[in-house]
Amino acid sequence: MNQQLMHDRLKLHFGYDSFRPGQESIIERVLSGRSVLGLLATGGGKSVTYQLPAMLLPGLTVVVSPLISLMVDQVQQLRARKKIPATYLNSMQDPTESREILKGLAEGAFKLLYISPEKLQQPYVQQVLKRTRVSLIAIDEAHCISQWGHDFRTDYLRLPQVVKQLGAPPVLAVTATATATVREEICSLFSIEKEDVVLQSLNRANIAYDLVEVAEEIDRRSYVIDQMDRLQGPGIVYCSTRQAVDVLTASYQLDGKKRVHGYHGGMNSMERMLIQSQFLAGELDVIIATNAFGMGIDKPDIRYVIHYQMPASLEAYAQEIGRIGRDGKPGYALLLFSWDDWQIHQHMLEKEYPTQAQVQKYEQLCNTGVPLTNEALAMVDISEEMGALLAFYTERVLASYEAAAVGESYPKAQIIWQETEKRRSFKQKKLAEMVSYVRGENCLRASINTYFKENDHQFDLYCCKKCGLTTDAYFQTNDHTIAKNEQIKWNLRQALDTLLPNK
Amino acid sequence: MNSRNSAAEEQDLLCAVALNAMLPLANERTLQSAYYILRGRKANQTLQDVHLYTLYPYYRMFSRFPREDWEKIVSTLFQAGWILPVDAGGTNSKPTFTFSDTGLQHAKHMYQKYRFDVWFAPFTQSDLAERIEPFWSRLHLMVQTISQMHHGDLGFIPVVSDKTAQRSVKNQLADGAMRTAWKQQLSDELYRLWEPLDEGVQELLFCQLSGVGQVGKTLGQVAEIRQTSRSYLMLQFRYGLAASIQTLLAESNHYPLLSKLVTESHKLDPRLTESAARTYALLQTGSDKKEIAKKRQMKESTIEDHLVEIALRCPEWDMTTYLPNELAKEIVETSERLDTSRLRLIKDQSEATVTYLQIRLALARATRGAK
Lengths: 503, 371
Ligand SMILES: [Zn+2]
Fold this sequence. Notes:
The complex is a heterodimer of chains A (503) and B (371).
Chain A: H1 3-14, H2 23-31, E1 36-39, H3 48-56, E2 60-64, H4 68-82, E3 86-89, H5 95-106, E4 112-115, H6 117-120, H7 123-131, E5 134-139, H8 159-165, E6 171-175, H9 180-189, E7 197-199, E8 207-213, H10 217-230, E9 235-238, H11 242-255, E10 260-263, H12 269-280, E11 286-289, E12 304-307, H13 314-321, E13 331-337, H14 339-352, H15 356-368, H16 374-379, H17 384-404, H18 412-439, H19 444-451, H20 492-499
Parallel strand pairs in A: 1-6, 1-7, 2-4, 2-5, 3-4, 5-6, 8-13, 9-11, 9-12, 10-11, 12-13
Helix pairs in contact in A: 1-3, 2-3, 5-7, 14-18, 15-18, 17-18
Chain B: H1 3-22, H2 31-39, H3 44-52, H4 67-79, E1 83-86, E2 96-99, H5 101-113, H6 116-120, H7 128-150, H8 163-172, H9 176-194, H10 199-206, H11 219-226, H12 230-250, H13 258-263, H14 274-284, H15 289-296, H16 300-313, H17 325-338, H18 343-348, H19 356-370
Antiparallel strand pairs in B: 1-2
The structure holds zinc ion (ZN).
C-alpha cells in the first residue's frame, strides 16, 4: 500500500500530520491482509488503526466493541468530524432500527460497523454479514477474550468461531493492557504470527505516580477534597461505587472551589452527555466518576487522576491513569488506599462466584427442565448475574466432556465449580498484585512497567512517591477562583442572539 | 442557603406533590396508584386513573422516581398525620387511605405555596406528558444544529443521542429552502414562544440548550446555581414545555417551523408503544394485518398483539373488519355469563370459528368501555 496515500488519508479524515508510535506498522500489516495484535497505550490512538484501513479496504470493516456508549460516541464522531460512513448495532436498539441498519449494510451503505459481541452471535446478523464483503474484523479491548484478562467477557469467547463463519477475514486485535500470557492467548485464538504483534512503549514518562495510605474514611475524604482544590486541573476522581461518587460530589459541593460534577451509569443519557461535553469544553474542572467515565473520551489535557479507592487490578488502574496528559505535558496520578478497600473487593469477589452448594442447586434446577428464568433462579438464591456465569461454565464443561466421553457420567457440578474457582482465584491473584503494588517498597513506575513487561523506565519531571516527588509541582500556580454564577440581568432576546446569531 | 436547605426543600416539595396527587384518589385507590401516576406507568389502570381523576399534570412528572424515595415521602405523610390508612374490607377490595382535616388544609396550603395552579395550567389533556420528552429532544437538537450551522461548523457531537429525534431533525433540514427558513426564523419563533412565560422559566429552558459557545446545564446544576430544589425546577421546566406545546398546537400558523416539532408526533400515536403506533399508522393507510406483518417483517401474532393494544387505547379505531359488532357482543356476554376473562374458557363456550384474536379484541374494547 502506498505510504503517501496512508498519510493523505490520515490528514484528510483525522487531521493529523503524522502517525503515532506503532500506528503505521499496524496499518501497513492490516492493509497487506495479515492478522495483527496491536498493543497501544491508552490514548495512543487505537481507533485510527482500524478506522483508517476501513476507508482504504474494499469491503466492510467490522469493529467488535464491548461498550455501547463508546460505540455511539465513536460513530457520531466518525460521521460528524471524519465523514466516514459508519454505523452501529447493539442489543439496545429496537428491531425496526436494527433492520434498517442491516438493510443499509446489505446495500453497502457503510464502510465501518461497530457491533457488540452478543449482537454478532445472532444468526440473522451473521447472514447479512456473510453476504456483505467483510474486509477486516477489528476487535477492540481484545484482552476481554482472554480468560486471563482482568475483564474477561464470556461473550468474547465465541469470537474466533464467528470469524471463521464470516469467511475468516483478517483480524486486528487491539488493546491497551495485556500481559504476556494474555498476548499469547489472543495470538493463538486468532492465528496471529509472532512478527505481527506490534508493541508500543507502555511507559508514560510524563506521569508521576503518587500513593497515600489512609486510615479513616473521613481522612480520605478531606485529603481528596483538599487536593482537588489545589491541583491544576482538569482532573478525574475515580470511585469504586455510584454511592461513593454521590457522597464525595455532595460533600465537595458544600464548600469546594472548583466546578465539579458526578458521573455514573445511574444518570440518564442526556445528562451524561451534557456533563461529558461540559468537561470537554472546559466548563467543569473535575469529574467525580465510576469507571463508566472515560472510555472513548478524547481530552488530551487531563492533568491528574485521583483514585479515591484502590482499583481491583493493575490493568484497570493502568487504563484509568492512562487518560492523564495525552498532550505530553506533566501529569499526576494519585492513588489512595486502605485496608477497607481490600476488604470491599474481597467481599465483591465472594459474592460474584458460586459456592459448591449453589452450583449443586443450579445443576438440580437444570435437571428438572424448568426454564431458567430469573424467578426460578431466585428461588434457589442465585442472582441473575450468577445465573449467566453458571450457564456459561455449564455450556463449556458440557462441550468439552461430552465430546470426549460419550454417554459416560462424570461429576458435572464438581467440575463446573472447579472452573469457577479457577476464575475466582485468578481475580484474587489480580487483587493480590494490586495490593502488593500499593504495599511494595520499590519504584512505582518500575513496578507497574515491569508488570506489563516494559523495560523503559524514563520519566520527565518526577518519577514516583518512592523515588521522591514534590506535589507542589502539580498544584495550580495562579489562584484563579472561578467567578461562580455571576449575575447578569436576564434578557431572552440577547440570549437567543448569542446562541442563534441571525445574520 | 446551601445544599442542605435545598434537600429540605426538595422533601417539602415532593410531599406537596404527593399529597395533591393523592387527594382525589383517597378512599378509592391504593397509595401505589399515586406512585404509578407520578412515574408515568403505561399500564391501563394507571392511564384510566389519570383520566378518571383528571390528574393530567401529575402523570409522568418524575419518570425516574425511585421507590425508596417514594416510601420515604409516604411515611412522612403518615407521621405528620396528614393521611391515614384504610384497610381492605367492605366496599374496598384493596387497602386505601384517607385524608385528615389537617392533611386537607396542608395540601391546599402547599398547592398555593408552590404555585401549582400556574405550573399545572397547561396540562389539560392526557397526551401532554407523552409529548414533552420528544418535543424537548427535537427542540434541543434543532437549536444545537442551527447554532452550529450559523457558525459554519457541522462537525459536532449531538447532545441528543435519541435516534428518532435525530431522524426527525435531519428530515426537517434535508431541503435547502427549509434549512434557510430554520436558520433565519428559529430565533424569532423561539422568542415569541417563550416571551410570554415567566422570566425564571425562560432562563430555565434556555440554559439547558446547547450550541456554539454554550453547553446545556443539567437541571441539577441549575438547582445548585439558584439554590433551589431540583424537583421544583422540574415542575417549572415541564410547565414551560407544556405551555410551548399548547401554543404551538393552537397557533401553528404563527409558528410554521416550531409547530413541526410538535405535530410530527401525530404520526406516531403517543397513546401506544412505539411499535404498536407504527402498526396503527399502517392500519390507517388501509393495510391489513397480513400486509403489515409482511411490511414490517414481523410475526403476524406480534401484529395481533398490537391490534389488541390499539383496541384498548384508541376507542376511535374501527375494528369491524376483525370483529363484527354482533360477535363482539356475544363474546362479552359469554365472558360475563362465565364471569371470567380467561380466553380458553370463553373459546370453549364459543363457536369453533371464533379466534383468540377476536376474543382478545372484544374484551379489550369492553374493558375500555367499562371505565
Ligand atoms: Zn520511581
